C-alpha cells in the first residue's frame, strides 16, 4: 500500500541518519594531521587515548600494543564487555581497502544504503584480475581488454562515492597501502587475507569478506571476537644471509598453520628495533599462513623513517609525539610468548605442500632425500606475495 511504502521510505531515511550519527560519534571531526595525502580526515590519536583511558579503568592492567589499538577503536568503550576469546567487540575502523575481485559486490551492496559517500576512507585497487603470463605491459593490457566493464564500474563508483581508485598497473594493493595509507595506531579492514601486511607500519590490519567491507563503508560498527595476543620476543640482530622473511618462516614451523588462530601476533623485544619497515611488513604479511587474525609491530624509528621517505612527515611527527602509546605497556601480559634470537636465525625454506613445513636451507637437501620428494626444483617464490624482494 501507499502507507507501507511511506513507512518503508521513512525507515530508510531514519536508518541513513542513524549511520551518520554513528559515524560522527566514532570518527569525530575537526582540524588535524590528515590520515593520508589523499584524505582530509584527521588522525584519531586523541580518540584513541580517550578510549584507552576508559578501558584502563575497567581492566586495571597493562595493555599490549595490539590491545591498545583494538580497544582504542571501540565504538562505545563505556558499554563494552571485554573478555579475550569470548566477547565480541564493536569497533570503528579507520579505513577500508578493497581489491578489484571482491570490491564489485561490496560496492553494489553499499549502494543500497543510499549514502552519498563512504563513511570511512576507502580505496579500490585493480590488481587481482591481472594474470601473469607474458610480461607486465602485455598482461596489464590483456586484463584491461578482458575486464573493461568491471574496471569502468569500479572507477565510476569510486568517483561517485568518494573512494580512491588505483587503476590496473598501479601496483599491488598491499604495497600501495603500505606506501600511502598505513600508519601507526590505525585500524584497517581489507578484502584480502594478506591485509595484515600493514602491521609492518604499526597498524592493526585485518582481512575480511565483502559483507564486513560494506559495514565499514556504511559506518556500521564492525564486530570482532576479542582476540588473544600471542607475543613473539625478538632479540639479537640478523646475520649473514638471514633476512626478515626468515623470521616468519621460522615462526610458521613453530606454530603450524593453525597455531595463530584466534590471536593477534605481536612482535616485541630489542630485536624489533633492528628490522626495516618493509621487512616487518613481509613478516606480518605471512602471518595469515599461521591462521592469525593479524600481526603487528610496535612503532619504531624505522617506521618514522619510512613515513618520511614516503612523503608523510606530518604523520611521522604525530606518531613520534604519541610514541609511548604506540608500543606495549611495561609488564604487558601475552597469552603465550615465543622467543626468536635473530643472531642465530639462518636462511629458511618452507614447503613443499604446506607453508608451515620449515627447513633451514642447509638441511633441505637431506630432507628431500629422506622424504623422497622430487629432486628437481621447478618453481619457487622469493620474498612475499606483496614484495618479491629479499627483505
Indicate the topology.
Layout: H1 2-27, H2 45-59, H3 65-72, E1 88-91, E2 95-99, H4 100-111, E3 122-125, H5 136-146, H6 148-161, E4 164-166, H7 173-180, E5 187-190, E6 204-207, H8 210-218, E7 222-225, E8 228-235, H9 245-255, E9 263-268, H10 277-285, E10 294-296, H11 301-309, H12 313-321, E11 336-341, E12 348-350, E13 358-360, H13 361-371
Unreliable sequence segments: 1-10, 15-31
Percent range of helical residues: 25-40%
Physical arrangement of strands within the biggest beta sheet: 4-3-2-5-6
Biggest sheet character: 5 strands, parallel
Distance between the termini: 64 Å
Globular, elongated, flat, extended or rod-shaped: what is the shape? globular
Query: What's the number of extended β-strand segments?
Result: 13
Tally of DSSP helical segments: 13
Give the overall average pLDDT. 90
Topology pattern, helix = H, strand = E:
HHHEEHEHHEHEEHEEHEHEHHEEEH
The portion of residues forming beta strands comes to 5-15%
**Content-based structural category:** alpha/beta
- Using the CA coordinates, give the radius of gyration: 22 Å
Structure description:
By secondary structure, the protein is of the alpha/beta class. Helix content is 39%, strand content 15%. The chain contains 13 helices and 13 strands. A five-stranded parallel beta sheet has the order 4-3-2-5-6. A four-stranded parallel beta sheet has the order 10-9-8-11, sandwiched between helices. Helix 2 (45-59) crosses helix 3. It is globular, with a radius of gyration of 22 Å.
Amino acid at each position: 500500500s501507499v502507507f507501507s511504502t511511506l513507512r518503508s521510505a521513512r525507515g530508510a531515511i531514519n536508518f541513513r541518519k542513524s549511520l551518520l550519527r554513528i559515524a560522527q560519534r566514532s570518527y569525530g571531526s575537526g582540524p588535524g594531521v590528515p590520515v593520508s595525502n589523499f584524505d582530509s580526515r584527521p588522525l584519531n590519536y586523541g580518540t584513541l587515548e580517550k578510549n584507552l583511558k576508559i578501558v584502563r579503568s575497567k581492566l586495571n592492567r597493562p595493555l599490549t600494543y595490539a590491545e591498545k589499538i583494538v580497544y582504542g577503536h571501540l565504538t562505545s568503550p563505556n558499554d563494552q564487555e571485554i573478555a579475550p576469546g569470548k566477547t565480541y567487540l564493536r569497533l570503528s575502523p579507520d579505513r577500508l581497502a578493497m581489491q578489484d575481485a571482491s570490491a564489485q559486490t561490496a560496492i553494489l551492496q553499499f549502494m543500497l544504503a543510499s549514502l552519498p559517500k563512504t563513511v570511512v576512507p576507502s580505496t579500490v585497487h585493480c590488481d587481482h584480475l591481472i594474470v601473469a603470463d607474458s610480461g607486465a605491459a602485455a598482461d596489464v593490457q590483456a586484463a584491461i581488454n578482458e575486464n573493461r566493464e568491471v574496471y569502468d564500474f569500479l572507477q565510476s563508483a569510486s568517483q561517485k562515492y568518494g573512494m580512491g581508485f588505483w587503476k590496473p598497473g598501479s601496483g599491488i594493493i598491499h604495497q600501495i597501502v603500505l606506501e600511502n595509507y598505513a600508519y601507526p595506531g590505525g585500524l584497517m579492514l581489507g578484502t584480502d587475507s594478506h591485509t595484515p601486511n600493514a602491521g609492518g607500519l604499526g597498524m592493526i590490519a585485518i582481512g575480511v569478506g565483502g559483507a564486513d567491507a560494506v559495514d565499514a563503508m556504511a559506518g556500521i560498527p564492525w564486530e570482532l571476537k576479542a582476540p588473544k595476543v600471542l607475543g613473539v620476543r625478538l632479540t639479537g640482530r640478523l646475520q649473514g644471509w638471514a633476512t626478515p622473511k626468515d623470521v616468519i618462516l621460522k615462526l610458521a614451523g613453530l606454530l603450524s598453520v593453525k597455531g595463530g588462530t584466534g590471536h593477534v601476533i605481536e612482535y616485541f623485544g630489542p630485536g624489533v628495533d633492528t628490522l626495516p619497515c618493509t621487512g616487518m611488513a613481509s613478516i606480518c604479511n605471512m602471518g595469515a599462513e599461521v591462521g592469525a587474525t593479524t600481526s603487528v609491530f610496535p612503532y619504531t624509528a624505522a617506521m618514522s623513517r619510512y613515513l618520511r621517505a614516503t612523503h608523510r612527515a606530518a604523520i611521522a611527527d604525530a606518531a613520534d609525539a604519541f610514541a609511548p602509546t604506540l608500543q606495549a605497556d611495561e609488564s604487558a601480559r601475552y597469552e603465550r610468548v615465543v622467543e626468536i634470537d635473530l643472531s642465530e636465525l639462518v636462511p629458511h625454506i618452507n614447503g613443499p605442500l604446506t607453508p608451515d613445513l620449515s627447513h633451514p636451507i642447509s638441511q633441505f637437501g637431506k630432507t628431500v632425500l629422506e622424504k623422497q620428494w622430487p629432486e628437481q626444483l621447478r618453481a619457487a617464490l622469493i620474498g612475499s606475495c606483496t614484495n618479491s624482494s629479499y627483505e
